[in-house]
UniProtKB/TrEMBL annotation:
Species of origin: Bacillus canaveralius
UniProt binding sites for a divalent metal cation: 48, 136, 140
Pfam families according to UniProt: DinB
Protein name: Damage-inducible protein DinB
InterPro entries for this protein: DinB, DinB/YfiT-like
Length: 170
């Protein structure tokens, strides 16, 4: 049986592909179009998700939270400047890194101590935090859907239930 964290991460990768495929069908300017929303553009949403996911894999790999936050800050402007195809490649490469990491049993069950800004450390595990990574992506794919509707375009379904259904059909 596949570990839930692995399957849930696979869903995240599938859902991101759905969004990228939909965005590639739309006029190129939609990616950077300014909107009144939580983020000013879809490109900024995707940069945020990517940098957050990058930070978490760094933490899972043994770096501390401060390192992850500083890395995101260092790469923010550079990441936000990437075009749609470049971001898709970045997401794909990061997904490969996650899958390689998560496919090692000793990593998926790895215990972590996360230093919080409040000073209280949180004891958890990689497998407990993978749903956080996936849920964060799900939340922001919802932002993208709302932004697309605001611009007059339909989005695409990225529901976990649809993923499970399609997986049974493959």
């Amino acid at each position: 049986m596949t570990h839930f964290a692995l399957q849930f991460y696979d869903f995240n990768e599938w859902a991101n592909k759905q969004i990228f495929n939909r965005l590639k069908e739309l006029p190129k300017d939609v990616y950077r179009q300014e909107v009144q929303s939580v983020f000013s553009s879809i490109s900024n949403v995707l940069a945020h998700v990517y940098l957050s996911d990058l930070g978490w894999i760094e933490v899972f790999s043994g770096k501390n939270m401060n390192h992850a936050l500083m890395l995101a800050e260092q790469l923010k402007e550079q990441t936000e400047s990437k075009g749609l195809e470049e971001m898709e490649t970045k997401f794909f490469e990061l997904s490969e890194r996650y899958k390689s990491f998560l496919n090692q049993k000793e990593n998926i069950d790895k215990s972590l101590v996360i230093e919080n800004p409040s000073g209280d450390p949180m004891k958890t595990s990689v497998s407990e935090l993978v749903p956080h990574v996936v849920n964060h992506g799900t939340y922001h794919r919802g932002n993208i859907t709302a932004m697309l509707r605001q611009m007059g375009y339909a989005s695409v379904s990225t529901d976990y239930g649809l993923y499970l259904y399609l997986k049974t059909r493959a």
